[in-house]
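Example record used in the benchmark description.
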Amino acid sequence: MTTIATTRAPEDPGAPHAGSAAPERTEPQRLRRSRLAAGRRRTALLWALLLAGPNIALLLVFVYRPLVESLYLSTLQWNLGSPTARFVGLGNYVEWFTAPTTGRIVLTTLVFTVATVGGAMVLGLGLALLLNRRLRGRGIARTVAFAPYVLGGFAVGILWLFMFDPRYGLIQELLGWVGIASPQWYTGRPWPLVMVIVVYLWKNLGYVALIYLAGLQAVPQDLKDAAALDGASAARTLRSVVLPLLTPTTFFLLVTMLLSSLQSFDTIKAMTQGGPLGSTTTLMYSIYVESFVNGRAGYASAVATILFLVLLAVTAVQLRFVQQKVHYA
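Model output (structure tokens):
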């Protein structure tokens, strides 16, 4: 019987063992992967800066820089055209809070905002429900309803001035047909403010209705069918099914319409110029009067800062409390 002896080559002390080879190869792989990930992050950051950089630059130049300058100007007593300005600190703010006209301006702003926002939301929802029905010519009706929104506010105000004319206007003729005398829209309180509110509602009604219409068409039909099978009436279906599903749309419109109403200027400028006797002067219009009519740029900057804080507070309250009642599908 022959025995075959096998010899084993001596192991090299510096050679890696089988059990330790994997970790030594894994470490460079991890380094390469981390470097690749870092490179991808840098590339993504560069692309983000390249794409968003122009917009960020525009915001810094045309939004945040004027905001900071307005805050600075609000601490100065400076008239337009004057080469000198005097630092007064919070003097402009104290003057605004103690001015006898401030209460009337705030009340006018509040009435105008509540009437235009509330009226637009209610009437817009009703118009959207009507336009959502299968009616002949509803496409044309939707276009006609939305058309006033794309018109300029100043042009709309001039147009409606002729319609509200108490002697020759169209509204005077329509009221005369039913035996009602036309109010003094231009002079008698509270008709100038009512006139401006009506025009603002007419201009923005189509926008609210169009947004609500998109929300209505997104409501699942099977939910409404299920409610009908359970014996729910149309009003009950609207209250219990449709309106809860429209809360995201309502929240969006509430935010945008509030901000738009508080900053309304062109319609008031075209129709009443804040009169008569300041009865249609809102916070936004008072900024224009103080800066470009009275020339008090420092005081106007203080009023603009107050309006900015009001807008910020309104938006924060809506995001904090109103959004909690929004039901997302």
